[in-house]
Amino acid sequence: MAWRNKYFLPEEVGSHKTRDDCWMTIHGLVKNVSGLIEEFGHDADLVKPILREAGNDVSYWFEKNGLGEIIVSTATSLQ
């Protein structure tokens, strides 16, 4: 069977917004970051902004802000 792309509606991504089931959209790709939350713990400083934006598009984190700075490096290992 050939591999096929899967598409998600924003509403579906938005329904995954708990610390045990957390998805985000980054530049059009849906990422399940639940494992990251589990690895670091839901109270970790790294995880707090992720939980605040759970179920949302966070592409702006990886783009230049008004000062020409990238908020989050695209060199992270987030897959």
TrEMBL record:
Gene3D superfamilies: Cytochrome b5-like heme/steroid binding domain. The keyword Methyltransferase does not apply. Keywords: Cell projection, Cytoplasm, Cytoskeleton, Heme, Iron, Metal-binding. One of its GO terms (cellular component) is axoneme. GO terms for molecular function: metal ion binding. Residues 10-65 form the Cytochrome b5 heme-binding domain. InterPro entries: Cyt_B5-like_heme/steroid-bd (IPR001199), Cyt_B5-like_heme/steroid_sf (IPR036400), Cytochrome_b5_domain (IPR052320). Coiled coil: none annotated. It comes from the Eukaryota. It is found in: Cytoplasm, Cytoskeleton, Cilium axoneme. Its main location: cytoplasm. Radial spoke stalk protein that binds heme under oxidizing conditions. Required for the coordinated beating of multiple cilia maybe by functioning in a redox signaling pathway. Belongs to the cytochrome b5 family. This is Cytochrome b5 domain-containing protein 1. It comes from Macrosiphum euphorbiae (potato aphid).
